[in-house]
Amino acid sequence: MTRAFPPMQTISTGLVVAIVGFFSSFPIVLQGLDAMGASPEEAASGLMTAAIAMGLAAIALSLRYKLPISVAWSTPGVALLAVSATPVEGFSGAIGAFLCAGALTVVAGLWKPLGRLAAAIPTTLAQAMLAGVLMPLCILPFKAAVEIPWQALPVILTWFIAGRFNRLFAVPAAVIAAAIIVILNAGDTTIMPERLIAAPIWAMPTFSLASAIGIGMPLFIVTMATQNIPGIAVMRSFGFTPVPGKLFSAVGGASLLSAPFGAPATCLAAITAAMCSNQDSHPDPALRYWSAIMGGVFYCLFGVFAVAITGFAAHADPLLMGTLAGVALIGVLANAIHAALEVVAEREAAILTFAITASGITVFGLGAAVWGLLAGGIAYLVTNWLR
User: Fold this and answer.
1) Rounded CA gap, 373 and 217, in Å?
2) With contact defined as beta carbons under 8 Å apart, do 314 and 105 qualify?
3) In terms of Cα–Cα distance, which of 250, 236, 181, 204 is closest to 90?
4) Which of 58, 240, 277, 358 is deepest in the core (most CB within 10 A)?
């Protein structure tokens, strides 16, 4: 029999999940949308829609399957966008690429060969590509420490010290430190936005082969390899039995619906999935799905006020926002490098993927992530063939 009201423990868990999920990575979302050519209004719409989309998806899927299905925006995906070249078509071209990635995710869930193909990409290469994407972003805090030391260093130190006590709250603590710095630097300038709530903005997509291959395909691959597939694995590790195909198609469908409003990609969560699935969520495994539901409710609330968050962030020095994004990704970078180099026989192919991706090159309109994965894949196949 289904409970009419969530247990109190799952409400508090859901709130923590939403705080960690939203405030640990919203600066990266804004960086990614800005790199894709979004205006401040379009970036606010994208952040708002992404938060609401993942909140509604978590609520609907958790209620439907009675499983702790935590949903997120693709943090590795928006990090990829942040280091990618702006499409020739501008933000409308990026919207088209978002739709392509969402469609591929739906197809991967419905058509098993594509799902198997995505899962067949060697983990070492996928993680090496992710590490190459993250490297330029993780360097930013230390560049900022030289150029704006009185702003960047307090944020870095806050992140480091808070992380010694609780890693989950290290980045939210850094966000608070950055907010205080913005307020102190504002002086008499009003930094509160004119509106706390705004309507999402529809953007007509533009489709091109270059954007689909250069942005859409890498966004699909990195999201599947580092979010969707690990998200399923996390739930299974706690004894739950999700059906991957249905969940992939569901989050892909959420991406298709939210992309025209600027949201890059909706996907299954991994870190917050563990928070919802373990015994701290609730002693009774059958009731843990309420934590994911409540997390979704709080995501929606944060999304409603995304325009105020974006307006406040607009008063920050770009290097300060880069510092926040960088410290938020350092842990992800460390895990990606470890996973990329874990298999000795595949290290050369992984390093090749990493180096080319981190170079930031663009050839024939295709970004470094595509060329890195292609070169690493060829090296991987040749090495295994020779062996």
Assistant:
1) 11
2) no
3) 204
4) 58
Q: For residue 266, what are its two tokens?
A: 């909706």
Decide if 355 is inside a domain: no
In 10 A of CB 309, how many CB atoms?
Answer: 24
Q: What is the pTM of this model?
A: 0.82
CB 263 within 8 A of CB 306: no
Tokens of 147: 């150029």
Chunked in runs of 10, what are the mean pLDDT values of the chain (387 residues)?
A: 70 85 86 92 93 96 94 90 89 96 94 77 84 87 93 93 85 87 77 72 91 91 86 86 91 96 92 83 89 94 86 82 84 85 91 90 77 89 81
- CA gap 182, 149 in Å, rounded: 14
Cα–Cα distance for residue pair 318/35, rounded to 1 Å:
12
Nearest in space to 100 (alpha carbons), one of 255, 226, 322 = 255
Distance CA(32)–CA(35), nearest Å, equals: 5
User: Does 323 reside within a domain?
Assistant: yes
DSSP code of residue 72: E
Counts for the chain of helices (H) and strands (E), in that order: 19, 2
The pLDDT of residue 191 is: 65
Q: How far is Cα of residue 194 from the mean position of the Cα atoms in its chain?
A: 28
Inter-CA distances, 223 with 102, 229, 321, Å: 10, 9, 23
Residue 214 in 3-state DSSP? helix
Distance CA 86, CA 84 (A): 6
- Strand 266-268 and strand 71-73: pairing? antiparallel
Please report whether residue 150 resides in a domain.
yes
Full domain range(s) for residue 217: 8-335
356 sits in the region (left: phi over 0; alpha: psi -120 to 50; else beta) called: alpha
Q: Kindly state the tokens that stand for 8.
A: 């109190």
Split into its structural domains, the chain has a count of: 1
Return the H-helix or E-strand segment holding 73.
strand 71-73
